[in-house]
Amino acid sequence: MSVFNWRLNTLAGWMMVNIVFAILMVVLLNAAVIAFASVWARPDIVQSGLLQQMGIMLKAVEACPAAERPRMAAAISDHEEYGVHWYASRNDVPMPPSDQDATSFKEPLVEILGQRRMEAFDPHDDDPEGRSGQTHYMLAVQLKDGSWLTFDTAKRIWGVHPHTRYLVIGLFVMFSSVVVAAVASRHLSRPMRRLAAAAERFGADVKAPAIRPEGPLELRVAMRAFNEMQGRIQRFVRDRTDMLAAISHDLRAPLTRIRLRGEYIDEAEQRRKLFADVDEMRSMIDAALAFFRGDGEEEAPTRFDLAGLVQTVIDDGRDEGGEVTYAGPTRLIYEGRPIALKRAITNLLGNAMRYGGKTHVELDTDIAHVRLRILDNGPGIPESLQETVFRPFFRGESSRNRNTGGVGLGLPTARSIVRGHGGEVVLGNTAQGLAATLLLPIESART
């Protein structure tokens, strides 16, 4: 790659190219505006209405006595746009002799004034070398008494007021500049947005694919570094999961042997306690393995009825003897992993029924989220522990009884699943007890 190409592929080079492109586009669009304005706002002399004004002025001057005509012509002149002058003879007219008889103007003027002698002068056509010194466009018309009336213009007359003309040009320039700036900035920021989207996706899904490097050199270096970091984290998670799976497999074998040997214990009470300990250890191993593997991550996203899923979990809780009420829509289609979400909702509802007794479930949506609130009548959780309880193996209940305190993976598992969907689980105390709020992005929902 040459030094020139390398510099163009940098962020500074991209900005330079986009700015130059923007300037060129503005120039081209301005040229188009001028071309458009020349047709719309700068009509030719026939369409401009100037001939009608000339006809009125001609009649007014012709009606005056010869002595008053110079003063009348000076009075009706518009010094900003055109001048009107009266001359006693053709020799007095400061215009070179011309064979051009204003054919293009003759027909409209004949309709206004009748047949008259007319001469037109164009400094570019009739006097290209500028020998006469005359630089204005001029139209000379002979009056009935043989005198002449001239109309000269220093510039072509527009069909709109100058302020309106400047406003139109300014609006076109501003519009073209905004369009070009928007296109150029979008082109420049697209790789940045892709990198930000990849980082956000990786934060929600550790198995997200790598991003393809593109854009300026600095951004491509950042993308490659991000891909390397993402690969290292994915390998770390995979190695950790494989290690835990191996540990779980190795632990199950001695647990099975302990259970088999426990069959030879004659005392029934001791045998029961031993089997209970073995079952608890096996449950802890299975729960830990499911958590570290990210239970449900391999499940393919699909569209399902989230409201129906919530009501199914509630029905299961009622079958277990829980007192649960529901308020929300009867149908809410959502795209996600239904088995994993069912596990997360079951964990939250199970905690509410275990520690809070009577439970109320609310499902609704707002502008940004699908919101599931699970409210109980329990003692709540101190604010200082509302984030701590999401740490793996932390139990807010101090006893070691698995039936009352659990393993300490219910809330961490629920939050991990919900975050994998781009959402969040938060806890908060209410006047009645604890409120566990499950938030999911609204983009994947429809009623």
Automatic annotation (TrEMBL):
Keywords: ATP-binding, Cell inner membrane, Cell membrane, Kinase, Membrane, Nucleotide-binding, Phosphoprotein, Transferase, Transmembrane, Transmembrane helix, Two-component regulatory system. GO terms for molecular function: kinase activity. It is a multi-pass membrane protein. It catalyses: ATP + protein L-histidine = ADP + protein N-phospho-L-histidine. Residues 246-444 form the Histidine kinase domain. It comes from the Bacteria. The chain crosses the membrane at residues 12-41, 166-184. Its main location: membrane. This is histidine kinase. It is found in: Cell inner membrane. It comes from Luteibacter jiangsuensis. It is an enzyme of class 2 (transferase). Its EC number is 2.7.13.3. Residues 186-238 form the HAMP domain.
